[in-house]
């Protein structure tokens, strides 16, 4: 997963902005000049530095294109793997439970499994088709006001304003509100409007992996025992294994489902814990890794802290007329934030960190910039822009 911004985007892998490309050109040129000064003239050194810089830019462009085309492959692969596990449940576990265990036990499993399946399919479909959110288009005649006031930055590629927490994705070639990262498994950016679908998809898929792994473990173990450790099986296990084998339940499909869900469940569990941490701290992946850059850390705003309960309620959309049922069952989500205005406590300067007495509450809709926010709202209303 990766993403890119014009000025300060940084995610799981390093992004290169336009300013950094200029700095990279200067660095490469100075390095080439220092190394080749003894054997090359000025014209040769300049050509060499331009050549190396061109190779670096070509590699970055190639990586972006590869990430885009990877999404075209990864999404069908994801649907195929999910379908494979579903087929294994219907073909092996469901009839085995119905015939060899009890009908009541089968009905309980059927209700739980289909509840998981509906939520997994809905949230995955929504995260792939839902736009992560883009900044409202500002008229060129009104653009200078926002840049001059420094309430919004400017994106040279989109030629539009960039509100706080907005970054330009070089893979999607657009600015994304509250961008977290670009995910090839969804062939989409994860941002303001689809981050909740992404999180719920991971959560339900992880629960599904754990469920299927436990359901298929006994079949997988008996199949391995019958093939490699037949002598060590007890008489009871041997009798049960032969019965399941004659019924066709000890197949390679059961082993495939078990191994797949264990592997995906482990990797997904780590990723899910990571995003639980990010949501709990009201941070995106880009913002987290930006903290490791001293220059960017100084520019990072410190957001108003809410309680853990309020943070999760706001993220999951449990507000106003929306309840917990919208999390437990498929529900179309409308974020509580507009992605343009954010409440911050400071600009993130080093001398203000850790000193609560000196931190003044500064909101994007306070008296200092109230006029700007009103004008943004007016522009959105006039142009019928839906955030």
Explained architecture:
It is a single chain. Helix 2 runs antiparallel to helix 3, helix 2 crosses helix 7 (252-280) and helix 3 packs across helix 5. The protein is 59% helix and 7% strand. It has a 3-stranded antiparallel β-sheet, with no helix packed on it. A two-stranded antiparallel sheet has the order 1-2. A two-stranded antiparallel sheet has the order 3-4. It is mainly alpha-helical and 387 residues long. It has helices spanning 18-36, 42-101, 103-129, 140-149, 195-228, 235-247, 252-280, 285-290, 294-299, 308-316, 325-328, 370-382; strands at 153-155, 160-162, 167-169, 174-176, 181-183, 188-190, 302-303, 343-346, 362-363. A hairpin with a 4-residue loop joins strand 3 (167-169) and strand 4 (174-176).
* Strand tally: 9
Overall mean pLDDT score? 79
Give the uncertain stretches in residue-range form: 1-16, 348-374, 383-387
Helix content: 55-70%
- Which class do the helix and strand fractions yield? mainly alpha
What coarse outline follows from CA principal-axis ratios? globular
Count of helical regions: 12
State which percent range the strand residues make up: 5-15%
Largest sheet: 3 strands, antiparallel
Write the H/E string, N to C. Answer: HHHHEEEEEEHHHHHEHHEEH
Could you tell me the radius of gyration in angstroms? 27 Å
């Amino acid at each position: 997963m990766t993403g890119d911004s014009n000025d300060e985007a940084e995610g799981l892998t390093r992004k290169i902005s336009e300013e950094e490309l200029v700095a990279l050109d200067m660095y490469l040129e100075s390095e080439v000049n220092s190394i080749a000064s003894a054997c090359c003239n000025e014209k040769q050194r300049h050509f060499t530095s331009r050549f190396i810089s061109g190779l670096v830019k070509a590699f970055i462009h190639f990586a972006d294109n590869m990430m885009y085309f990877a999404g075209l492959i990864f999404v069908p692969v994801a649907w195929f793997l999910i379908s494979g596990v579903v087929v294994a449940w219907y073909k092996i576990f469901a009839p085995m439970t119905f015939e060899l265990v009890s009908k009541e036990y089968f009905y309980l499993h059927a209700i739980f499994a289909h509840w998981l399946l509906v939520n997994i399919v809905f949230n995955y479909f929504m995260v792939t088709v839902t736009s992560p959110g883009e900044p409202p288009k500002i008229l060129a005649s009104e653009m200078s006001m926002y840049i001059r006031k420094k309430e919004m930055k400017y994106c040279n590629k989109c030629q539009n304003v960039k509100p706080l927490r907005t970054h330009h994705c070089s893979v999607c070639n657009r600015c994304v509100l509250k961008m977290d990262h670009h995910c090839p498994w969804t062939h989409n950016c994860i941002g303001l409007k689809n981050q909740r679908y992404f999180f719920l998809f991971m959560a339900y898929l992880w629960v599904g992996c754990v469920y299927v792994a436990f359901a298929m473990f006994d079949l997988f173990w008996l199949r391995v025992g019958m093939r490699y450790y037949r002598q060590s099986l007890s008489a009871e296990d041997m009798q049960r294994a032969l019965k399941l084998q004659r019924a066709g339940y000890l197949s390679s499909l059961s082993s495939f489902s078990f191994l797949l869900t264990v592997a995906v469940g482990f990797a997904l569990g780590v990723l899910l814990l990571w995003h639980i941490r990010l949501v709990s701290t009201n941070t995106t992946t880009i913002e987290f890794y930006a903290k490791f850059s001293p220059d960017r850390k100084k520019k990072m705003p410190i957001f108003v802290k809410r309680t853990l309960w309020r943070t999760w309620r706001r993220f999951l959309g449990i507000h106003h007329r929306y309840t917990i049922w919208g999390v437990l069952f498929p529900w179309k989500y409308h974020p509580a934030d507009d992605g343009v205005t954010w409440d911050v406590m400071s600009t993130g300067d080093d001398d203000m960190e850790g000193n609560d007495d000196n931190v003044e509450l500064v909101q994007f809709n306070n008296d200092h910039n109230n006029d700007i926010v009103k004008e943004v709202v007016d522009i959105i209303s006039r142009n019928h822009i839906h955030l």
